[in-house]
Amino acid sequence: MTGRAFRYLFLGAGAAVSIYPFVWMLATSLKALREASLYPLALVPEQWQWHNYADTLDAAPFATYFFNTFLTAIAVTLAVLLTSISAGYAFARLEFPFKATLFAILLATMMIPFEVVLIPNFIAITRLGWYDTYAALIVPWCASAFSIFLARQAFLGIPGEYYDAARIDGCGHLRFLARIAVPMARPTLIVIALFAFLGSYNALLWPLVVTGNESMRVVQVGLTVFATTDGVRVNLLMCAAVIVIVPTLGLYFLAQRYFFDASIGAGLKG
Fold it and tell me: Which residues constitute the domain of residue 21?
């Protein structure tokens, strides 16, 4: 019993430490600016400032920011799913020259920090005339090496007998992929879609670099309007953070049950 109590106490303490930043963010969003600056660790506001959320939405065109963000994130998610399913199936089921070498090169690209390719990507975007366009926000992220790896592992987990039986019935690779492989790999594909959506939704540096017009900004860039030369409006910044985080929390709770299935499937075959 003592060991079990210690484990529960340890896990409870870890949960409290993890939850505290979110509780603090919500509490700070309902404080006055003076209180948020003088008493930053207090969790209960002296007076609940519910109007902070209306002030936050009036401080910047968040409707435009959210439209740009969701348009970009949905387009990136669909593109990543298409490229991951196609390339993942090819690496899992098709035979072609230098297959292992190409897959190794693909995995090696995951070791390259984003900052290394930031300037080359920006130069390519400007020379294509895509600066301040949706193409600049979407096209560079239409494929993901990690997502291709996850898709490949999911397709490898499908027994070969399924394809053999489908081929006897006259089913080719495309039909097998659409009718059998994709439905069986649905948990992994949902996780891939979630990762792609959240990666695009939470992007800050790249949208900040390739957009200059406020009409093309995304919500993460919009958060910077509360940090000025006069200081940071902490309470309104936390309001904006709460508003921005709600869609991601909703997506996580809807798809969390698929994470476990995908994490097991990724290690079935190498």
Answer: 1-49
Chain position carrying tokens 């003076």:
34
The pair phi, psi for residue 87, each rounded to 5°, is: -70, -40
Domain-embedded: residue 181: yes
Q: Are residues 44 and 67 in the same domain?
A: no
Tokens of 231: 């200081």
- Tell me the whole-structure pTM to 2 decimals: 0.84
- Asked if residue 91 and residue 41 are part of one domain, the reply reads no
Give the integer Cα–Cα distance in Å for 70 and 264. Answer: 30
Shared domain for 20 and 88, answered yes or no, is no
Q: Write out pLDDT tens, residues 109-134.
A: 988 888 888 999 999 999 999 999 99
Place of tokens 């002030």: 55
Q: Which residues contact 132 (CB under 8 A, 6 or more apart)?
A: 210, 211, 212, 213, 216
Packing angle, helices 234-265 and 2-28, rounded to 10: 140
Pair type for strands 227-228 and 231-232: antiparallel
Q: How confident is residue 223, by pLDDT bands cut at 50, 70 and 90?
A: confident
Per-residue pLDDT of 211-222, as tens digits, reads: 988 889 999 888
- Report residue 225's pLDDT band, with 50, 70 and 90 as the boundaries: confident
DSSP 8-state code for residue 139: G
Query: Would you give the DSSP letter of residue 128?
Result: T
Task: Report the number of secondary-structure helices (H) and strands (E) in the chain.
Answer: 15, 2
Residues 15 and 129 in one domain: no
Residues counted in the chain: 270
Q: Tell how far CA 48 is from the center of its chain.
A: 32
CA distance 198 to 247: 10
Give CA–CA dist 266/148, Å, rounded.
Answer: 11
Q: Tell me, what's the pLDDT at 258?
A: 66
Q: 168 forms bridges with which residues in the sheet?
A: none
